[in-house]
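Researcher: We're teaching a course module on how sequence relates to structure. For the next exercise, students receive a sequence and then see the predicted structure as tokens, so they can try to spot secondary structure elements on their own. Here is the exercise chain.
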Amino acid sequence: MSNPVLERGFGGTQAAATADAAAAGHDFQTTGSPIVAESMSVGGVSRATGFMLLVLLAGGLVGWNQVTATESPELPVFLLPAILVGFGLAIAGTVKPEWARFVGPLYAVVQGYVLGAISRVYELAWSGIVLQAVMATILTTIVMVALYATRTIRVTEKLRSVVVGATIAVAVFYLLSFVLSLFGTSVPLVWDSGMFGILFSVAVVALAAFNLLLDFDLIERGVAARAPASYDWFAALGIMITLVWLYLEILRLLSKLRD
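Model: And here is the predicted structure for the students to work with:
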């Protein structure tokens, strides 16, 4: 769900970034570009993302240590509240991009706690699976960066529409599945380790990976539109949301393959 986050900020056009800067009180040149002391940059996004990853790892260490190594490990009692808080922070960063500088690190530490606890449970069930998932996430990210940089896959309006639409559909499906689980009902086949369940996970992993392409495209256009430097953190938050989702989906896929 990261691309709708970035789409909210940049709108995919220089005009949208200009309008946002105007709302924030920036001056404008006659060309319509915002005059700002500092503008968004790829380096700024990279630094913000790197910092948030470090914070996520710190939160992950705390969450990991909250799960006791037993035959039937239990998730921490604070896991569900942490998930809800993380979701709320992501929404806050979407609605108020200027808050991303503060919301982003908070989101990272909360999601790190969640990922750490969940990862520990998976690791106790399938030894070595967490390292495999981390390496697969890194490799997938590198591949998507290469595909985007070489324009092997071009982000067109059609591709953007398909990926965003599919992402929203998956998000709605997960929400409905969560609601059904509260009543003791689960969606058949999807969560199983059978062929259908594996194919579903492969498709969702691919969808999360394609969201990275949309993230890169929107960042590139935000830089070209000279969006304010505060959007470095806004873009980094979008990338973090995608990476968290990608890692969780890869972890789930690997568990199905090893079940």
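Model: If you want an answer key for the exercise: The two ends are 28 Å apart (CA to CA). The chain has one domain: 2-258.
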